[in-house]
């Protein structure tokens, strides 16, 4: 696809999340990843939907007591802590955001699992761990922040022992009738510091092979997570109405500026009007999608 990204660096991604992570977690129910709804009639709040996706990922990792799991792009630590508490495994999470790491370690201490759960600042393209350090790895939407999926997955595969699982979520994009992706989506990706060129779900067979992984499963969950955009923007808009927000959040909202914020000549739509319009859009075929990828390192 012919898509022009601004090209965020690990440093700029880290700086972005240093500014927005607490706000994003607040509007997304405690975590910083998509929610999973069962369908259009599912009225779950974001916290419930987010936990549902977390549990789906934890189940696919399949960690057992005493095993060691790497959480690549740990956010504020909620998924990693939940995995450790439900499975009995140890966990190390990494993020390029200093604030992520600080708040995630605070969460681990508050949840009384800091003896086997810890978080540190690191770039997924250069993980500070020896080969075969972990039994499994998981990554919630973090791979979209690096330019080279193969390089990132190769590095993750390096630190996972032979036969270990690598479970991740990734964005996919469908081409429009003119052969280009939706340009609004490009602006959305820029505002969220997405770096990776959009792919199709079918591309993961080649990506996994080039990274030295065995691909077991690719599952399209677009129809379940697509409501994330609606609730994220609605809740961000509500939050920004009542609280000062950093420029990074303003940039996110500015993508849909006239719709979300109004203009001099036209007042902003009400929350109810926005939700109605968003649901109409979500009933159509989506340009952006999401997949769950399950792979493993080759057995010795």
UniProtKB/TrEMBL annotation:
Residues 57-287 form the Polyketide synthase-like methyltransferase domain. It comes from Micromonospora phaseoli. This is Methyltransferase domain-containing protein. One of its GO terms (biological process) is methylation. The lineage of its organism: Bacteria, Bacillati, Actinomycetota, Actinomycetes, Micromonosporales. Transmembrane segments: none annotated. SMART domains: PKS_MT (SM00828). GO terms for molecular function: S-adenosylmethionine-dependent methyltransferase activity. InterPro entries: Erg6_SMT_methyltransf, MeTfrase_dom, Methyltransf_11, SAM-dependent_MTases_sf. It comes from the Bacteria. Keywords: Methyltransferase, S-adenosyl-L-methionine, Transferase.
